[in-house]
Amino acid sequence: MNDKLRLTRQIHAYDFSILEMELYLDVHPHNQRALNLLSDLRKKRAALVSAYEQRFGAFVVTKCDVPIEDHWHWIHSPWPWEAKEGE
Amino acid sequence: MWQYEKKLQYPVNIKNPNPKYAQLIISQYGGPDGELGASMRYLTQRYSMPYNEVKGILTDIGTEELAHLEMICAMVYQLTKNLNEKQIKESGFDKYFVDHTTAVYPIAAASLPWRAEYIQAKGDILADLHEDLAADATTTKEQPAF
């Protein structure tokens, strides 16, 4: 498994856990243990996303702080539905 | 407003195109219980909801359904990639192809285009939440059907 795929899978796993915690907190809004866990998961996800984006490009176009000659690189990274073999 | 993340909620990587399967899967996009209807249902109902908790949940779930919609579209897109004429004709995909080629158009498996009649927004909290419960219950039926 390449680094890009490994990082993507880790981010997906954190996304899933974060979403589940958010849904849990919809009906248990004052559960301090769940709030702490959510905050921890969000920090870990942010660190992974930042590591991913430095190497493979931004997920979100507004974060594309790139040199002017490569200004439109966001549109050229693979689109999510265009799976490439092994990715 | 929304902010787009250039990734799927869960990766879709289909190795073997299958236009017959695509014609069934497409219902989960534009069919009566599909993701387009689901996202529109929750995002439409939230404006007339009287409680902040419910507005929040409808916004979250409606957004989540848009992420599901993108995954289903990715599946349809990949299932109908690089088809030859024989595959298009023999799978029955020709009836879709003549109107849409391999564009991902929101229709039900039985070819009816997506309609707003699939959803309801009544401005009544009990009516709308019951509509949501009924809509959610359909998903327990269609997923094993695949």
Summary of the model, kept short:
With 87 residues, chain A is an all-alpha fold. Chain A has helices at 3-27, 32-56.
Task: Indicate the topology.
The complex is a heterodimer of chains A (87) and B (146).
Chain A: H1 3-27, H2 32-56
Helix pairs in contact in A: 1-2
Chain B: H1 19-25, H2 27-30, H3 35-45, H4 52-79, H5 85-90, H6 94-100, H7 125-145
Kindly describe this structure.
The complex is a heterodimer of chains A (87) and B (146). In chain A, 57% of the residues lie in helices and 0% in strands. With 87 residues, chain A is mostly helical. Chain A has a domain at 3-57. In chain A, α1 (3-27) runs antiparallel to α2 (32-56). The longest helix of chain A is centred in the N-terminal third of the chain and has 25 residues, at 3-27. Chain A is elongated and about 45 Å long. Chain A starts with a helix and ends in a 31-residue tail after the last helix. Chain B is mainly alpha-helical and 146 residues long. Helix content of chain B is 58%, strand content 0%. Chain B has helices at 19-25, 27-30, 35-45, 52-79, 85-90, 94-100, 125-145. In chain B, α1 runs antiparallel to α4 and α3 (35-45) packs antiparallel against α4 (52-79). The N and C termini of chain B lie far apart (34 Å). The model of chain B has no long low-confidence stretch (mean pLDDT 94). Chains A and B meet through α1 of A and α4 of B.
The CATH homologous superfamily of chain B is called Ferritin, core subunit, four-helix bundle
Helix percentage range of chain B: 55-70%
The termini of chain A sit apart by 9 Å
Under CATH, the topology of chain B is which? Ferritin
Cα Rg of chain B: 17 Å
CATH architecture type of chain B: Up-down Bundle
Low-confidence stretches of chain A: none
Tell me the distance between the termini of chain B. 34 Å
Number of separate helices of chain B = 7
Order of helices and strands of chain A: HH
Largest sheet of chain A: none
Instruction: Report the sheet-strand fraction of chain B.
Output: under 5%
CATH C-level class of chain B: Mainly Alpha
- Give the largest interface pair and sizes: A-B, 21 and 22 residues
* Structural class label of chain A: mainly alpha
Q: Percent helix among the residues of chain A? A: 55-70%
**Largest pleated sheet of chain B:** none
The count of strands of chain B amounts to 0
Over the alpha carbons, how many angstroms does the gyration radius of chain A reach?
Answer: 16 Å
Low-confidence stretches of chain B: none
